[in-house]
């Protein structure tokens, strides 16, 4: 980022650089966006370790003395390191725009390369922080000059530094130029991998003869999120980490080489790359080597058709759920939350004594009530009835307006059929009343009754609810994003409208529920409280006692807007 770009964003037209203040421990105490941008601008040849925190966060308070201790460690004195911190207290929207999903979190910037690490870091994760600093220093700093290495601008997937072919089996694995002899123990393990277990001996032997033994150096990007998948990997030695880049990160402020947040780590005998082969969808995550890593690699074209890895055999539902969980795709089952709210609604009905609750026919069941319905003469509609009807219709249009606001925030993956499948799943979770209501909204906006919503029709509806400043460009963007399978849509069909309305409805339901736990209106909620409310609701209807929020430190603060998107599978 150039100085002129920084000035354009900060509004500072004076050529005098912003003077940043360090505290007594040598840590830059940043006050907001301007300070953050200035720090990056003024340190193009430094590695910046940035801590994001909230003053009221218990985990942040626990991390503080340990962060100070690291910043003052003598072994870092000769290295080009800068330590800084930024509070979310007065910079909520900016901090969230940087992809900070939890507090406390750490960003590590490497000069012109920009953001290279982003991960939550509570007090228990200090060893991880130290290891990350060591990894970045070893990769980015010249050991002779102690200066940051020049950035070459590489952003694609890394090629293996060495490829070997399988020459046979032996007592132990032995490497040579061009080939490798694999130990019988390793071969036996490979044979038991779930995807290979049902192969005949001939199929397995043929597959191994076509596989390669690839070596990746530390820092290599073995897989990149969003790219097509054609290879399955099994780790023989070393370790890799899984990184996921959210769909709502600002493309203008996110560096092109940024891979996302670390969500998992894999080691020896674990495997990756299977999700894309199974589903046919682009890579859902990036994979980066933590250290020198050797993998067995299998091309999709060489995998027997009997395996779901070939893309020709359908995977089981359980298998898809496993890979989605592994790569942080579908975090939560929306059925569970929907049932919880349905149960809460039923609890407001009169149903007998607390110890002997009765079933209400027509509410708890699909049966009609046993009571006879008294038929009364319907009186003519009054002016009050007409006003109430208009207000109900106005409310429905406001609901559509909130949906349109939500669509504008999304960044769909064009051509990804998985987006449509996910929205179809959300539509299936709507109640009949909700579905009918949304279709009624569609008919209200579709003024010419052709079964499609056009730009003029949406503009007219938005004008009715007072949203008159929406540009035609924004409305066309809304229409285009309603169907992510094609880039260039000019109308919205009823099914597409139902999909985006369902997604927006569930997102707002989750976000507004979690917002009740955020008295500071910071956008972050303590993980323990989030887990308690979800588990508490679940415990009313289930004996499952597994924690829903999977974090080590329950005092960590979670970005609940992004968490809400995770719950509907849109991140």
Helices and strands, with pairings:
Blueprint: H1 3-10, E1 28-30, H2 33-42, E2 47-53, H3 58-71, E3 81-87, H4 92-97, E4 102-103, E5 105-110, E6 115-120, H5 126-140, E7 162-170, E8 174-176, E9 179-183, H6 184-192, H7 201-210, E10 212-216, E11 221-223, E12 231-237, E13 240-244, E14 261-266, E15 271-272, H8 274-279, E16 286-289, E17 293-299, H9 317-326, H10 334-346, H11 383-409, H12 417-428, H13 432-445, E18 452-453, H14 455-464, H15 472-481, E19 492-493, H16 494-515, E20 524-526, H17 527-539, E21 557-559, H18 560-567
Parallel strand pairs: 1-3, 2-3, 7-9
Antiparallel strand pairs: 2-5, 4-21, 5-6, 7-10, 8-9, 10-17, 11-16, 12-15, 12-17, 13-14, 13-16, 18-19, 20-21
Helix pairs in contact: 1-2, 11-13, 11-15, 11-16, 12-16, 13-16, 16-18
């Amino acid at each position: 980022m150039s100085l002129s770009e920084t000035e354009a964003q900060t509004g500072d037209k004076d050529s005098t650089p912003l003077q940043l203040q360090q505290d007594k421990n040598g840590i830059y105490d940043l006050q907001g966006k301007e300070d953050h941008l200035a720090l990056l601008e003024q340190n193009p040849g430094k590695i910046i370790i940035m801590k994001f925190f909230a003053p009221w966060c218990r985990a942040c308070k626990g991390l503080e003395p340990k962060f100070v201790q690291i910043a003052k460690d003598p072994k870092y004195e000769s290295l080009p390191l800068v330590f800084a911190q930024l509070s979310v207290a007065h910079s909520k929207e900016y901090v969230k725009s940087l992809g900070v999903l939890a507090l406390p979190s750490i960003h590590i910037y490497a000069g012109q390369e920009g953001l290279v690490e982003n991960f939550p870091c509570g007090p228990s994760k200090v060893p991880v922080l130290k290891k990350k600093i060591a990894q970045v220093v070893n990769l980015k700093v010249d050991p002779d000059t102690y200066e940051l290495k020049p950035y070459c601008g590489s952003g694609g997937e890394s090629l293996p530094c060495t490829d070997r072919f399988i020459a046979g089996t032996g007592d132990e694995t032995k490497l040579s130029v061009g080939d490798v002899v694999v130990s019988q123990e390793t071969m036996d393990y490979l044979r038991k991998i779930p995807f290979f277990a049902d192969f005949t001996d001939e199929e397995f032997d043929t597959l191994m003869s076509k596989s390669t033994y690839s070596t990746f150096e530390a820092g290599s990007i073995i897989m990149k999120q969003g790219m097509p998948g054609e290879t399955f990997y099994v780790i023989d030695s070393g370790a890799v980490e899984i990184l996921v880049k959210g769909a709502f990160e600002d493309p203008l402020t996110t560096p092109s080489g940024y891979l996302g947040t670390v969500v998992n780590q894999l080691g020896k005998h674990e495997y990756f790359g299977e999700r894309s082969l199974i589903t046919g969808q682009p890579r859902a995550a990036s994979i980066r080597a933590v250290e020198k890593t050797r993998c067995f690699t299998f091309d999709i074209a060489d995998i027997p058709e009997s395996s779901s890895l070939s893309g020709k055999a359908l995977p089981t539902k359980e298998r898809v759920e496993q890979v989605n969980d592994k790569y942080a795709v579908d975090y939560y089952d929306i059925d569970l939350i929907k049932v919880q709210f349905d149960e809460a609604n039923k609890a407001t009905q009169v149903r007998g004594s607390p110890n002997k609750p009765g079933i209400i026919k027509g509410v708890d069941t699909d049966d009609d009530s046993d009571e006879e319905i008294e038929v009364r003469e319907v009186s003519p509609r009054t002016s009050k009835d007409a006003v109430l009807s208009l207000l109900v219709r106005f409310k429905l249009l406001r609901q559509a307006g909130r949906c349109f606001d939500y669509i504008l925030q999304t960044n769909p993956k064009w051509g990804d059929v998985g987006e449509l499948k996910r929205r179809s799943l959300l539509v299936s979770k709507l109640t009949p009343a909700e579905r009918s209501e949304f279709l009624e909204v569609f008919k209200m906006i579709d003024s010419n009754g052709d079964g499609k919503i056009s730009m003029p029709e949406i503009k007219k509806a938005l004008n009715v609810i007072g949203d008159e400043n929406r540009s035609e460009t924004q409305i066309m963007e809304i229409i285009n994003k309603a169907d992510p399978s094609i880039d260039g849509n000019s109308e919205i069909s009823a099914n597409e409208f139902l999909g985006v309305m369902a997604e927006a409805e569930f997102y707002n339901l989750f976000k507004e529920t979690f917002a009740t736990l955020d008295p500071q209106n910071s956008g972050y909620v303590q993980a323990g409280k989030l887990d308690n409310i979800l588990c508490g609701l679940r415990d009313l209807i289930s004996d499952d006692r597994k924690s829903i929020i999977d974090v080590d430190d329950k005092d960590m603060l979670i970005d609940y807007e992004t968490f809400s998107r995770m719950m509907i599978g849109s991140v």
